[in-house]
């Protein structure tokens, strides 16, 4: 495979549009797979990195290959990898980091850590599978890592815990994965979304949904948690800084005043002040690669749950283009905002 030609949609500088050009074929590490990508999804962090460059992502070096969500076919297997073979259909998270600048998703062949990859059933199309990885990793990091919420692990036969979790932002990509993981781990889920998405989040397993824009959202959630044992909160919101801070503060306030575990895992930066007695920590999804939770989720739970039809790739994929030239348009479209959907590009 080493002479196989590779091509990428490359980021060559801050605020530069992606450029499609030939790049080196990645050499597989002992714990890695090389995957030929058939579909990729785009995420807010991709356009944030494009716009903000080293101002926010100090380790970024140009040219850089963006993208974290891939679905495709295994073409090479590292010497220490077990459980995968050439030809397997997989979905994987191309993690961020200074040592992985050649590992991004927006190329024909990506180098992926095997503990961040799952097999997918033949019945699942690549474009549908591609919606999963970053949302799943972010949700799993906050829900299951011991230094976050440390919840019971998910299973395809969940054991009820009798506890209820607050997921703020259930219709986001991260929230859609989090609801399903938390329910599979035996927790009831109360969530927030726009009313148009209430049926969507309930379809994923939430028991109750509340409008995060309602002026009474805090009181509504406190009322909903009355008489329940709270398992803590996972806070996710859109990309507007002020709205994200307000969402984080509101979520923390509800957890502070409810009975039960006083911790919130946040997909956004921590607000300047935390309520007394509540712990909180910012999630870094790529950090999952160093956690045993990666093996639990990618190695065990997800392949089984997909095969058993007990996990739905969500939000639903909207294929917005084909080929590497379409990726910049997908990023531009995502910047305009999405609601309960994931923008996907299929690759030749
Ligand atoms: N820290 C990490 O490692 C990490 C990883 C991934 C993502 N993130 C961050 O997590 C956030 C979500 O990312 P994503 O890809 O999941 O987003 P997304 O799916 O693109 O987000 C769109 C959704 O945001 C919801 N939303 C907007 N404002 C909200 C608010 N104030 N409260 C609750 N929901 C709100 C909208 O819900 P409605 O349409 O129902 O109104 C919409 O469905 C982003 O800020 C992203 O940067 C962080």
Quick take:
The protein is α/β, with parallel strands linked by helices and 348 residues long.
Structural class: alpha/beta
Number of helices: 9
Please estimate the helix content. 25-40%
Work out the number of β strands: 15
Report the CATH superfamily of the largest domain: Medium-chain alcohol dehydrogenases, catalytic domain
Order of helices and strands: EEEHEEEEHHEHEHEHEHEEHEHE
User: What Rg, in angstroms, do the CA atoms define?
Assistant: 19 Å
Sheet with most strands: 7 strands, mixed
Runs with pLDDT <50, length 5+? none
- Bound heterogens, unique: NADP nicotinamide-adenine-dinucleotide phosphate
Structurally, the number of domains stands at 2
What name does CATH use for the topology of the largest domain? Answer: Quinone Oxidoreductase, Chain A, domain 1
Distance between the termini: 17 Å
The amount of beta strand, in percent, is 15-25%
CATH-defined architecture of the largest domain: Alpha-Beta Complex
Mean pLDDT: 96
Q: Rough shape?
A: globular
Q: What is the CATH C level class of the largest domain, in words?
A: Alpha Beta
GO molecular function, one term: oxidoreductase activity, acting on NAD(P)H
Keywords: Oxidoreductase
Domain Enoyl reductase (ER): 13-345
Protein name: Enoyl reductase (ER) domain-containing protein
């Amino acid at each position: 495979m080493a002479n196989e030609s590779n091509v990428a949609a490359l980021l060559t500088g801050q605020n530069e549009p992606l450029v499609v050009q030939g790049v080196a074929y990645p050499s597989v590490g002992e714990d890695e797979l090389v995957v030929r990508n058939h579909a990729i999804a785009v995420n807010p962090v991709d356009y944030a990195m494009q716009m903000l460059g080293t101002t926010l992502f100090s380790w970024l070096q140009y040219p850089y290959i963006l993208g974290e969500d891939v679905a495709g076919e295994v073409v090479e297997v590292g010497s220490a990898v077990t459980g995968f073979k050439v030809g397997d259909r997989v979905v994987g998270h191309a993690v961020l980091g200074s040592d992985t600048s050649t590992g991004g998703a927006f190329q024909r062949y990506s180098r992926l850590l095997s503990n961040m990859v799952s097999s997918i059933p033949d019945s699942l199309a690549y474009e549908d599978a591609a919606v999963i990885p970053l949302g799943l990793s972010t949700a799993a990091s906050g829900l299951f890592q011991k230094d976050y919420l440390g919840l019971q692990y998910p299973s395809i036969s969940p054991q009820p815990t009798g506890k209820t979790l607050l997921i703020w932002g259930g219709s986001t990509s991260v929230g859609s994965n989090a609801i399903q993981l938390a329910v599979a781990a035996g927790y009831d889920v109360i969530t927030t979304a726009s009313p148009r998405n209430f049926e969507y989040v309930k379809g994923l397993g939430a028991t109750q949904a509340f409008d995060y824009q309602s002026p009474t959202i805090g009181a509504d959630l406190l009322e909903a948690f009355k008489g329940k044992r709270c398992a803590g909160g996972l806070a996710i919101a859109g990309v507007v800084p002020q709205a994200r801070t307000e969402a984080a503060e509101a979520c923390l306030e509800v957890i502070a005043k409810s009975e039960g575990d006083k911790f919130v895992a946040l997909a956004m930066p921590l607000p300047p002040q935390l309520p007394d007695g509540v712990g909180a920590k910012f999630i870094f999804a790529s950090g999952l690669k160093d956690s045993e939770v990666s093996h639990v989720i990618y190695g065990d739970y997800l392949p089984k749950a997909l095969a058993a039809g007990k996990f739905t790739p969500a939000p639903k994929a909207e294929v917005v283009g084909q080929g590497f030239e379409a990726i910049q348009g997908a990023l531009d479209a995502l910047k305009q905002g999405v609601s309960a959907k994931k923008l996907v590009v299929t690759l030749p």
